[in-house]
Design brief:
Blueprint lengths: L1 H6 L19 E4 L9 H16 L3 E4 L13 H11 L23 H14 L2 E4 L3 H13 L15 H9 L5 E4 L8 E3 L3 E3 L3 H4 L4 E3 L7 H11 L4 E5 L6 H11 L5 E5 L2 E3 L14 H6 L4 H10 L13 H7 L10 E3 L4 H14 L1 H19 L11 H11 L25 H5 L5 H14 L6 H13 L6 H13 L7 H22 L1
Parallel strand pairs: 1-2, 8-9, 10-11
Antiparallel strand pairs: 3-4, 4-7, 5-6
Helix pairs in contact: 2-11, 2-12, 11-13, 14-15, 15-20, 17-18, 17-20, 18-20, 19-20
């Protein structure tokens, strides 16, 4: 046993175990399974860990928990880290970034789990189980038939050393189970307060090392949290009842446990589980749809607790500043994704107002315009930075997504219409008069155009015509400016296009 204990010494740089002392700050981890895309529930867990670490000058770790090899999706681990970086909450240590406490992928730490299991076997805290899958299935069926919760009957915990040696000599398959004991000590969760679950009364001894040499969640997390120096475990409330089991493992190893904070569930606005069907809650979908990561971070924290203030439009820096772990309540967070466009509108407005962030939006919008309208005789002038930047500034606060600006409602911004003079004359015979009036109006505009003022001005212009009704004048101007008979109001078009572009399109229509 002494040899096995020596093998379990802390890796270099981790002599003190969990906590590492206040001078180092807390160490927290996000441990997703690479079974698919990162979804909003996982993002929320990662975000709370990130915020807690940054609030207290600590370290945020990404640890890939891939012990269930049958469910691993190729590329999923890389995709999860990609999405954390996209969201603006990159890990300090991870499979990609490395660190002093790696490897950061559980499938690369199998030797450590095997040595830890050997220690528990030598101490009598664990035992080999030789029960076949068929026997375990019969136990399960019998329990269900009796309307009881299926549990292992702990049959193999009573095997003598000679029994075990004989079965090993026969080459029988085995797993390792942890011996649950009664007398669990209560623990204080940072969210749920004092808790205690007598797991030995309701569960059979759990498997901690499977026949393929891979650990189960219970062993791997306890061993990794210890050797990675994790000081605080912030995870979903579904693990609250398992914590007493994990504390028994810490006790069996003789290790000090970290502090636990179990986060309440993130649910739909009606209280149901978040649906993963059709990719509704996966981050890739939101990124592809053009949502800003700040909007997602804002909405998934706004619907929950843990912050001194709640309002839309909070940045990540503000979330860190406002966070207090003691303010997290036990109430589930109800997420209303119908509000996401409004959250995004607020954050998109902030991006447009920020010169540095606005330049990134200009480049993105240039690509969107080329993609959507590139085959429609696109005038290259509409792709100039000055024009696109002005469109962004004029539509600031009116759009929820950048791609709104390439929808059919805004096609007039990017495709200059080719409208024959004869077509305009079918609307009103006063084409020249109306054109001159509008050109004069645009020339006189010294300040910033507003829809309200333009509507008044256009009403006054119509009164200067001889026989053209207001509705006909609007139809004529809409055709001249956009080539369309439907869409935004003429005043809105003129505000967005600006005086120079309006004059250019009127001149073109009059001379065609």
């Amino acid at each position: 046993m002494a040899r096995a204990l020596r093998a379990l010494r802390c890796p270099a740089g981790l002599e003190r175990g969990p906590g590492l002392g206040p001078e180092r700050g807390p160490r927290v981890r996000f441990g997703p399974s690479p079974t698919g895309f990162l979804h909003l529930g996982g993002l929320r867990t990662a975000l709370y860990n990130y915020i807690f670490a940054k609030k207290h000058q600590g370290t945020f770790i990404l640890r890939v928990e891939d012990t269930d090899q049958n469910r691993v999706v190729p590329g999923a681990a890389e995709g999860i880290e990609d999405m954390l970086e996209w969201a603006g909450i990159p890990p300090d240590e991870s499979p990609r970034r490395g660190g002093s406490f790696g490897p950061y992928q559980q499938s690369h730490r199998l030797d450590l789990y095997r040595k830890a299991t050997d220690v528990l076997l030598e101490r009598g805290a664990a035992y080999r189980c030789f029960c076949t899958c068929q026997r375990l299935e019969l136990l399960k069926k019998e329990a269900l038939r009796s309307q009881q919760t299926p549990r292992y009957d702990n049959r193999c915990r009573h095997l003598t050393p000679r029994d075990v040696a004989e079965k090993l000599a026969q080459g029988l398959d085995w797993v390792v189970r942890f011996r649950l004991e009664r007398g669990v000590e209560p623990f204080q969760d940072l969210v749920y307060g004092w808790n205690k679950h007598e797991v030995a009364d309701v569960e059979g001894d759990p498997v901690i090392l499977k026949g393929d040499g891979f650990p189960t969640y219970h062993l791997a997390n306890v061993v990794d949290d210890h050797y990675m120096g994790i000081s605080h475990v912030l995870r979903g409330t579904e693990w609250l009842t398992s914590t007493s089991k994990h504390l028994l493992l810490y006790k069996a190893f003789g290790w000090d446990p970290p502090q636990f904070a179990h986060l309440p569930l993130l649910l739909n606005k009606d209280g149901g589980k978040l649906s993963k069907r059709q990719g509704d809650i996966f981050l890739e979908r939101f990124a592809q749809d053009g949502y800003l990561p700040e909007a997602l971070l804002d909405i998934i924290t706004n619907c929950g607790s843990g912050f001194t203030e709640k309002q839309m439009g909070r940045t990540l820096e503000e979330l860190i500043s406002l966070f207090e772990i003691g303010r997290i309540t036990t109430h589930s967070a109800l997420l209303d994704l119908d509000q996401l466009p409004e959250f995004n509108r607020i954050h998109l407005t902030r991006h447009i107002e920020n010169e540095g962030l606005r330049q990134k939006l200009v480049r993105e919008l240039q690509l969107l315009v080329e993609h959507v309208y590139g085959d429609q005789q696109l005038d290259r002038e509409v792709l100039e930075e000055e024009y696109i930047e002005r469109v962004l500034l004029l539509r600031k606060g009116h759009i929820s997504l950048l791609k709104n600006l390439v929808s059919s409602d805004y096609s007039y911004l990017w495709v200059r219409p080719s409208v024959a003079r004869e077509q305009l004359q079918t609307v009103s015979a006063e084409v020249d008069e109306i054109g001159k009036l509008v050109l004069g109006l645009m020339t006189r505009q010294a300040g910033v155009l507003t829809v309200e003022e333009l509507n008044k001005d256009l009403r006054n212009l119509q009164k200067q015509t001889k026989e053209t009704k207001y509705s006909s004048m609007m139809k004529l101007l809409r055709l001249a400016l956009s080539g369309q008979q439907h869409g935004p109001s003429v005043a809105e078009m003129m505000v967005t296009l600006g005086p120079k572009e309006v004059c250019g399109r009127i001149h073109k229509a009059l001379s065609s």
